[in-house]
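In the design runs reported in the main text, the only information available to the sequence generator was the tokenized backbone. The following block is the verbatim input for one such run; it is reproduced so that readers can re-run the procedure and compare outputs position by position.
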């Protein structure tokens, strides 16, 4: 499979395959997915040449990260790229009160608590490293800093301020230490991504479905700004 090399400001090349594997479905999104089916799907993708895998604590409430662990065991670390996300810390609860009933199926009894603080980002990443079995995650996105997720501009802005005052600093330090190789945002709205670009030193963004044949607004300012600054999308 073809790859694209991305090396912002010559800080270290990342080799993305042109097709990546999003792990939300194998975490049990919208229908139950057994472990054998999940693993067979991931191994089939690997055999087809896919080497970029995107996950998050939210996906299956930790289940997608633990299932990805099995795929990656024993494979040379330089052969693939993994991205995960911060912004939620998972906590155990009862089956009746777990998050995502009707959306996530056959998943652990956990809830995701929003935490964009310095300590919250460190805890989230520590748990992701444990679940994936990795000692380095290539790309870390701050997850869902948008109105769509939080329900109002006021809530989103409060979380955004918390992140820039704390969680952002944690990501910068981890990038400087080599624990992660690139930082950015995984959001549902380009406006939130642009707000971050204008206020921080971000490397790459995962913009969920907001630039399509039918939706072109991101071309007005966000995408040209990223192109100017060498930021990946």
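Verbatim output:
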């Amino acid at each position: 499979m073809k790859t694209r090399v991305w090396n912002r400001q010559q800080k270290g090349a990342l080799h993305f395959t042109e097709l990546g594997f999003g792990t939300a479905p194998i975490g049990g999104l919208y229908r139950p997915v057994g472990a054998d089916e999940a693993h067979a799907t991931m191994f089939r993708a690997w055999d087809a040449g896919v080497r970029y895998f995107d996950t998050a604590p939210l996906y299956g409430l930790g289940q997608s990260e633990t299932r990805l662990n099995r795929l990656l065991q024993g494979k040379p670390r330089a052969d693939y790229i993994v991205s995960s996300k911060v912004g939620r810390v998972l906590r155990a609860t009862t089956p009746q009160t777990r998050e995502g009933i009707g959306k996530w199926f056959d998943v652990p009894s956990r809830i995701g608590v929003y935490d964009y603080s310095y300590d919250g980002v460190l805890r989230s990443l520590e748990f992701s490293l444990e679940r994936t079995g990795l000692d380095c995650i290539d790309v870390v996105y701050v997850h869902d800093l948008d109105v769509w997720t939080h329900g109002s501009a006021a809530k989103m802005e409060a979380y955004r301020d918390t992140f820039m005052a704390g969680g952002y600093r944690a990501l910068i330090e981890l990038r400087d230490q080599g624990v992660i190789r690139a930082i950015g945002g995984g959001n549902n709205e380009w406006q939130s991504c642009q707000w971050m670009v204008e206020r921080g030193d971000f490397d790459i963004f995962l913009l969920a479905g907001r630039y399509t044949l039918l939706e072109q607004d991101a071309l007005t300012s966000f995408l040209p700004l990223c192109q100017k600054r060498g930021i990946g999308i």
